[in-house]
């Protein structure tokens, strides 16, 4: 019930303490993101990767700090609910004029649910819906940096505008040949056809901060000519002679979707007003959910908040049933989905078959490793939730029986809210973008037969992509462990992505060995392994029987990726990684690169 008076003496103090906690969090988050520029300028690649990993932990640390302060100063957990209603209203007042109100609301939710031990997102004491608009937020101080800058080439020629755009970022490392690079950018823009006739409104809007990830920095912009708009991204790299280069020019929504893929590490971007960046990016990628954009910017908790709001909205306006997800069932994870919703829900089973020597905590640690690692476009990001409530009527009896059989500890069916609605409550789960399992995608092509040219092209493309995915993971120091086709998925853009993490290891922790030659005829005829095998031993020559049973698949694989069956391939990458080399894996193809960079290191896929 809405409080009629704000008369609780401690309510404002609690609200202010929570706002202090959020402001400290975002100040540290932004400071770490801003330092990415210096790490890029000085080629501190290991520092960049370390900062990307450590920044993920910032949010939970600040929530714990704030929770401890509220308990120590206000004994917050023992306060009546009427006080918490007033706390929320005071907090809303503090959001007026704030530059990150949506993030501050999520921080309030995190702290409040931790203190009140609430088990559901729905209650009167958190922000189920946003209270503050994020439209048109801008810092009006004279010295403040705007969300984006506008350049008008008609006044200074396109070449001059492009040069000014780059120089305004103030990079403290010289370009190898900036006029050469900008001439190539101008030529690439001309090839897009957007400038065939210059209209009255001709401008380039550029986000004011660069986007840093691994060894690259990305300038993100939008070309506007009359009614036409075209996304533009310029990747900046360190060139072979030590100076900076513009490596390529990326255009259009598909290029942006690849750059901001859910299978890549989060960007580091110095943003005073993150909602402004999200609004700008959505104008470039209208099909990409705001939740995924916030997550790609490193604001994963806000991504989770928006995802859950989208999910509740979808449940309200749909009526289909949750089901066991199509495909081969896993031994470790139970997977279900809602056909009308493009995500899958994964929970860890209570028990695993003997060949899976792992525990629930070890599986969770693997998923956390993926969260913190460079995913190089080949490992799907996951959203981790606890105590998620679903409407019971949306669950078929077969799915309930499946959960009761394999993960009973994770299931509760009750009316915990006391509102008369029975709910299915899952104690812990991961949510992940739905992809078509690669084994099903391959089977479609094989069933169509060799006379179907499209099917044969699909088969060849998916086998080549599968090998490329493994090689990208290897470059990032990841050994997938279980390399079966069923553990990979195909995205809507045809990219092959790995999504089964319970057996992944760091490549450098594995021991890649040759299969020993038989000592005698008895060894050769034996159906059992007769040689000793250590817990981290891997025999690449043994992959073929499991992966290449079909002749058509084998032919394509051996043509493009036969090296994956040789220990020397894996050992060579181990040596490079141990020597400190950071491999380049970028979100665009080799042929997109400007000619003078083409011989520099970049995978061919």
UniProtKB/TrEMBL annotation:
**TM spans (from-to):** none
Isocitrate dehydrogenase kinase/phosphatase (AceK) regulatory domain: from which residue to which, for each copy?
15-318
Pfam families tied to this protein:
AceK_kinase, AceK_regulatory
Q: Name one GO biological process term.
A: glucose metabolic process
List, in alphabetical order, the Gene Ontology terms for molecular function in this entry: [isocitrate dehydrogenase (NADP+)] kinase activity; AMP binding; ATP binding; phosphoprotein phosphatase activity; protein serine/threonine kinase activity
InterPro entries the UniProt entry points to: AceK_kinase, AceK_regulatory, Isocitrate_DH_AceK
Primary location: cytoplasm
Localized where? Cytoplasm
- Keyword Nucleotide-binding among UniProt keywords: yes
Q: Name one GO cellular component term.
A: cytoplasm
What's the EC number here? 2.7.11.5, 3.1.3.-
Q: Which residues form the active site?
A: 381
Catalyses:
L-seryl-[isocitrate dehydrogenase] + ATP = O-phospho-L-seryl-[isocitrate dehydrogenase] + ADP + H(+)
**Keywords attached to this entry:** ATP-binding, Cytoplasm, Glyoxylate bypass, Hydrolase, Kinase, Nucleotide-binding, Protein phosphatase, Serine/threonine-protein kinase, Transferase, Tricarboxylic acid cycle
Residues that hold ATP according to the record: 325-331, 346
**Top-level taxon of origin:** Bacteria
Q: What region holds the Isocitrate dehydrogenase kinase/phosphatase (AceK) kinase domain?
A: 320-589
Similarity-based family: Belongs to the AceK family.
Q: Please explain the role this protein plays, according to its UniProt record.
A: Bifunctional enzyme which can phosphorylate or dephosphorylate isocitrate dehydrogenase (IDH) on a specific serine residue. This is a regulatory mechanism which enables bacteria to bypass the Krebs cycle via the glyoxylate shunt in response to the source of carbon. When bacteria are grown on glucose, IDH is fully active and unphosphorylated, but when grown on acetate or ethanol, the activity of IDH declines drastically concomitant with its phosphorylation.
Q: Which PANTHER family match?
A: ISOCITRATE DEHYDROGENASE KINASE_PHOSPHATASE, PTHR39559
User: What name has this protein been given in UniProt?
Assistant: Isocitrate dehydrogenase kinase/phosphatase
**Provenance organism:** Comamonas antarctica
